[in-house]
Write a structure and sequence with these properties.
By secondary structure, the chain is mainly α. About 75% of the residues lie in helices and about 0% in strands. It contains ten helices and no strands. Bound molecules: fe (ii) ion (2 copies).
């Protein structure tokens, strides 16, 4: 039922967006040749896979309350854009990665725009009060405090967040009955997987490879515990 309703609504989104010059076309992301994007990404992958898969119960919670999920998903995309730009603000001397950080922030903002357009078409608003995302809070608590250490940890944490996001968007894509929604979430999966790779590449610009992967393994191991312990809800985390 969700999928049938979503199809018509998504068509309306495309029509709405197509008439708004300032808005990125939602169907542009769904019409990219995703298979070629996946093969390019696979060849350049630097991030590590997550250690434990998401539970089927999480997917059930999302699919049975997709409107609530979209509210959280939109917020996560907006925060991902802010996170990329916060690196630019905090580390203006890291000129080697600033263009890619800006690209990432723009892509995340486009994701926010696309999810918000879906929400508008379904007649739902953004959440009025945004609670703490304990998954992110717990991961942030693992970051060290020295300037260099924190820089490295924040980059690797970003990679883990993106990699988990990619895994979950893939699950949602596979579960969608509506073809447009499935294509949209598949495209998001590819994009977030690419981001998971990019943040490790950024860390490798400044830190020793052995040190980077040792620390990345640390985050991957801890993320597995954190994701297993948080309450399941219709949200990205
Ligand atoms: Fe995104
Ligand atoms: Fe991302």
């Amino acid at each position: 039922m969700e999928g049938e309703q979503g199809g018509g609504q998504l068509y309306n989104v495309v029509q709405f967006v197509a008439h708004t010059h300032s808005i990125h076309l939602i169907n542009s992301i769904t019409q990219h040749p995703i298979s070629s994007q996946i093969s390019i990404f696979a060849a350049m992958k630097l991030n590590l896979d997550i250690a434990v898969p998401s539970k089927p119960e999480w997917l059930d919670a999302v699919m049975s309350d997709f409107n609530s999920f979209l509210q959280d998903h939109a917020d996560c995309e907006r925060k991902a854009s802010s996170m990329a730009m916060s690196f630019v603000a905090k580390y203006p001397n890291r000129v080697e990665i600033i263009p890619e950080l800006i690209d990432t922030a723009v892509e995340e903002l486009q994701h926010f725009q696309q999810v918000y357009a879906m929400m508008e078409a379904r007649g739902i608003q953004l959440e009025h009060s945004i609670g703490k995302d304990m998954y992110v809070v717990n991961l942030m608590n693992l970051c060290r405090h020295g300037r260099e250490e924190r820089f490295m940890d924040r980059l690797l944490l970003a990679s883990v967040l993106e990699t988990r996001g990619a895994e979950r968007f893939r699950m949602i894509a596979d579960a969608q009955e509506d073809a447009e929604y499935a294509r949209f979430y598949k495209a998001l999966w590819v994009s977030e997987a690419k981001h998971g790779h990019i943040f490790v590449k950024m860390a490798l610009n400044y830190f020793d490879k052995t040190e980077v992967y040792k620390r990345l393994e640390f985050f991957i191991e801890n993320e597995a515990e954190i994701i297993s312990e948080i309450d399941i809800r219709a949200a990205l985390h």
